[in-house]
Amino acid sequence: MKAQKPQSLRNGDTIGIISPASSPDDLSRINKGVAYFERLGYQVEVGKNVGKYSGYLAGSDEERVEDLHAMFADNKIKAIICVRGGYGSPRLLDKIDYRIIRKNPKIFVGYSDVTALQLAFFHKANLVTFAGPMLAVDFHSEINRYTEENFWRTITSTKKMGKVILPEGETLQSIKKGKADGEIIGGNLSLILSLLGTPFLPKLKNKILFFEDIDEAPYKIDRMLNQLLISGILEKLSGLLLGEFSDCVEKDVDKKTLTLDEVLQNYLGDLPFPVIKNFPHGHRKANYTIPFGIRTKINADKSYVEFLESAVT
How far is the C-alpha of 150 from the C-alpha of 131, rounded, in Å? Predict the structure, then answer.
């Protein structure tokens, strides 16, 4: 069944803000992000529980789910943008009424810990979501131009997205040659693995899997890739696209280690489908917004990625 695309965002529409994981240490970032959207001509509605703290969580599970439900159920809200990642999204998965999501498909944006929600929305509500910039991370100060241009084009244009143009000076690299196409799905690697064995991970057969991560030593990436391998997931894919692995190095200079590239090559170099790394998405400034759930082509022979349709209607 073809994934359900949300309607495109238009000038003057209302953007809802929720905080499903952690709150920022500096709450002024929320107001600064809101001001950015308002300068562009959008209305903004901030969830009533945004800005709360409960340890490392942005309020209780019930408060965070309440905001999520309210934003999806409100007809005037056309897009929902998360404040930040951190931790907490997976705690909401068994508390969400997915009928509300299915009946009210709309633009939903975030990355990192928000991966858990995006995977669940795709599996339970067949909704295309967006791995893209977040309010208190990317919009609170001067936004990176590459991030900004790709984000707004992705959620406002009904034209086919086409080939990905990389930031200046960056190139894609092939771990395994070949060509493939299929629906793209994924997010943060740690969060993908946290859903293994649960009813919230989408079926990945014939999908192009994307993943990135941050601050994980090579042996931890090794462990996660091994889990993907022995779970049987890797063999079902049509292709793999790898994003930024920020600070994924061994911090102890005296500790023996493999490099990240050695780990990736070891697990992914002999797969029977194409594998591309260095895609410009993850915990970084210049971030390409990925619409999870749309048909995508990867060509590891000529090192390009092409989105074969629009992300919105």
Answer: 12
Asked if residue 193 is part of any domain, the answer here is yes
- Choice among 23, 112, 238, 310 that is catalytic: 112
pTM of the predicted model over 0.90: yes
Asked if residue 177 and residue 51 are part of one domain, the reply reads: no
Residue 215: inside a domain, yes or no?
Answer: yes
What's the pLDDT band for 144 if we cut at 50, 70, 90? very high
- 144, 193: one domain: no
C-alpha 63/C-alpha 76 separation (Å) is 21
Active site residue 45: no
Range of the domain at 145: 14-156
Q: And the tokens for 132?
A: 């893209």
Tally of structural domains, the chain = 2
Spot the catalytic one: 123, 140, 281, 283.
283
Per-residue confidence at 280, pLDDT binned at 50, 70, 90? very high
Known active-site residue 112: yes
Three-class DSSP category at 304: strand
